[in-house]
């Protein structure tokens, strides 16, 4: 039983890393639902854990993107400033939302992103 859990965890990680490497996303869109529905992690902890998992994935992907010279550094620095401020605000607010509201907000963002990508 424990081997199956390790296999499932590594498989979710592999898919997350693959999606992140190809599309530059995946941490939230793959990890949060996987942690909640496949691994039974409580929603708030799933969101926080996904952020922690994204860091090493992002470092590896960023290194490779820099190596291939496909990063717009001025844009990166400007967006990073706003992202850091947003991360401070968002992580402080996470526990203020009930699981029901958190799922609705997350789902709405995923739907909006999906529609924008298709159109």
Question: In this structure, how is the largest beta sheet organized?
Answer: none
What is the approximate shape? globular
Unreliable spans? none
What is the CA-CA span between the terminal residues?
A: 43 Å
Provide a count of the helices. 5
Helix/strand structural class: mainly alpha
Report the C-alpha radius of gyration, rounded: 16 Å
Could you report the average pLDDT, rounded to the nearest whole number?
Answer: 90
Count of spatially separate domains = 1
Q: Beta-sheet strand percentage?
A: under 5%
Q: Helix coverage percent of residues?
A: over 70%
Q: Write down the secondary-structure element order.
A: HHHHH
- SS elements, strand count: 0
Short description:
With 119 residues, this protein is an all-alpha fold.
Description of the structure:
With 119 residues, the chain is mainly alpha-helical. It has one domain. 84% of the residues lie in helices and 0% in strands. The protein contains 5 helices and no strands. The protein has helices at residues 2-23, 27-38, 43-67, 73-93, 99-118. Helix 1 (2-23) packs antiparallel against helix 2 and helix 2 runs antiparallel to helix 3 (43-67). The longest helix has 25 residues, at 43-67. The protein is globular and about 40 Å long. The termini are far apart. The relative contact order is 0.09.
Task: Based on the model shown, name its key terms.
119 residues, mainly alpha, 5 helices
Would you spell out the secondary-structure blueprint of this structure?
Blueprint: H1 2-23, H2 27-38, H3 43-67, H4 73-93, H5 99-118
């Amino acid at each position: 039983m424990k081997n199956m859990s390790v296999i499932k965890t590594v498989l979710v990680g592999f898919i997350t890393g693959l999606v992140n490497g190809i599309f530059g996303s995946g941490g939230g869109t793959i990890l949060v639902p996987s942690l909640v529905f496949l691994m039974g992690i409580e929603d708030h902890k799933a969101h926080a854990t996904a952020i922690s998992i994204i860091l090493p994935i992002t470092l590896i992907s960023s290194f490779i993107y820099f190596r291939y010279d496909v990063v717009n550094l001025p844009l990166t620095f400007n967006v990073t400033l706003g992202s850091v401020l947003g991360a401070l605000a968002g992580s402080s607010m996470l526990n203020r939302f009930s699981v029901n509201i958190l799922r609705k907000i997350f789902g709405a963002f995923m739907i909006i992103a999906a529609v924008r990508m298709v159109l």
